[in-house]
Write a structure and sequence with these properties.
Elements: H1 10-29, H2 35-47, E1 49-51, H3 52-59, H4 63-75, E2 79-84, E3 87-95, H5 97-121, H6 123-134
Antiparallel strand pairs: 1-3, 2-3
Length: 138
């Protein structure tokens, strides 16, 4: 264990673990996606279709930042634009088959990592951790 971690407060401990987990998922996936790109893919997987403005609100970045990231995902073939009847103002974004496959692959990687964690800390502790993280304490 890295010694510096012992002196961290709860917020920083959670941030450190989050960073390590995200890095492991990205490394295992083999995709060259940054955190914002993977976050957008996850939101699209959850919501199926979103406007750029909706994505901006969901992931808390500027519309311009979202547009730039969407352009990268479009160029990589992960997402596509969709026409919504009666709404010519907003550009709507959906996953492509490639984007859906990347999301599926990342879910499998996350499940494998979760199994590793359970093996290290025990199934009971894993359930306690899951319960604590899903409770409404923020």
């Amino acid at each position: 264990m890295k010694e510096y971690i012992l002196g961290l407060n709860l917020v920083d401990l959670i941030s450190e673990k989050h960073k390590v987990l995200r890095d492991r998922v990205n490394m295992a996936s083999g995709e060259k996606l940054n955190k914002t790109e993977t976050h957008i893919l996850a939101m699209l997987e959850l919501h199926v279709m979103l406007s750029i403005s909706e994505i901006s609100r969901l992931i808390s970045i500027s519309r311009q930042g979202t547009q730039k990231t969407i352009n990268n995902l479009l160029a990589g073939g992960y997402v596509d634009t969709a026409i919504v009847e009666g709404n010519s103002r907003d550009k709507h974004i959906v996953l492509t088959p490639r984007g859906a496959e990347v999301c599926r692959s990342m879910l499998e990687i996350k499940q494998d990592i979760e199994s590793e964690i359970a093996a290290r800390i025990g199934k009971d502790q894993m359930e306690v951790l899951r319960k604590l993280l899903t409770e409404d304490w923020l």
